[in-house]
Specification:
alpha+beta; Beta-Lactamase; 5-stranded mixed sheet; 10 helices; about 45% helix; elongated; PAS-assoc_C; Diguanylate cyclase with PAS/PAC sensor
């Protein structure tokens, strides 16, 4: 590697050694991809010294815990020479478990031959525990919502939606794909319930939910009743412009239901949609995307009725 005049290889090595994240380099030309370099951050992360780690296979920290779905993703990336981002259960020298977010990238020589993999490894145990606790809380919330509101046809429950969104997020990170997370609110729905009653409100939500479910019915879509009168959507693959067109069509379909709403400026029920379409970053979480979609729908609702606010 050629370095700029002001950067020596020794300076670069010292800089990498100061990084908090673990940095590793594995030899792609040898069986099991043995480690040939680890920085001080990885020594601290793993509890092993560099002398103990050099020559060990990249799977060293997995121990006997090999029944993990993302290990197959990692192995496929190593075999095919492509980048990947996975989160694995790993074990330190003292046997303690930690969740390791591992990003690997291939390095090729001037002829294009694969020679090495560089890995960036981060302890994300606190984040994973937080997500696990959130899923447990969602289980309780799901049970409570199920008692209060009967399920809507074609609409996933919150638990399934959260699982699907987490899976979509991991896939989008790994494949650098677009992911949309959306919130849908019926306009002036509190007034709708006050004027027509809760039974009419539930019937209205079933009609709206049915229309949303039919509009987002691909395998790469998932819809849930997020709160009593809100719907959440996760969808992969569409560009921001394509999603905007899709949402405009959905608003037209809801208006076409002609659900009377005398407190609405148009005299019929309309909806407000907010959300985001993006290629998720490494640090993106499902909770963060939902919060941003929630903020977008409220921004749209404050601005007008029968509208959408899609941030890309």
């Amino acid at each position: 590697m050629d370095f700029p005049p002001l950067i020596s290889s020794d300076l670069l090595a010292q800089a990498v050694d100061q990084l908090h994240d673990g940095i590793t380099i594995a030899d792609a030309r040898q069986q099991d991809w043995p480690l040939i370099y680890v920085n001080a951050g990885f020594e601290k992360l793993s509890g092993y010294s560099a002398a103990e780690l050099i020559g060990k296979p990249v799977r060293f920290l997995q121990g006997t815990d090999t029944d993990q779905a993302e290990i197959a993703v990692l192995r496929e990336s190593l075999l095919t020479g492509v980048s990947c981002l996975v989160t694995l259960r790993n074990y330190r020298r003292d046997g303690t478990l930690f969740w390791n977010e591992l990003s690997i990238s291939p390095i090729r020589d001037k002829t294009g031959e694969l020679t090495h993999f560089v890995g960036i490894q981060k302890d994300v145990t606190a984040r994973v525990i937080q997500e696990q606790n959130l899923r447990q809380s969602n289980l309780h919330l799901h049970a409570a919502l199920k008692q209060k509101s009967p399920p809507l046809p074609g609409i996933s429950d919150r638990l399934h939606f959260d699982e699907q969104l987490t899976g979509m997020l991991q896939t989008a990170k790994r494949t650098h794909s677009l992911l949309s997370v959306l919130m849908v609110n019926p306009d002036q729905f509190k007034r709708f319930n006050e004027r027509y009653g809760l039974a009419a409100g539930d019937a209205c939500l079933r009609m709206v939910g049915d229309r949303i479910a039919k509009s987002f019915a691909r395998n790469s879509d998932c819809v849930t009743r997020y709160n009593r009168d809100e719907f959440a959507i996760a969808s992969m693959g569409d560009s921001a412009e394509g999603m905007k067109q899709h949402l405009t069509k959905l608003r037209d379909q809801i208006r076409a239901l002609n659900i009377p709403h005398s407190d609405s400026p148009e005299g019929i029920l309309t909806i407000c949609i907010g959300g985001i379409t993006l290629i998720p970053q490494r640090e993106s979480t499902a909770e963060d995307l939902l919060q941003r979609a929630y903020a977008a729908v409220h921004q749209a609702g404050q601005r007008s009725h029968d509208c959408e606010c899609l941030i890309s």
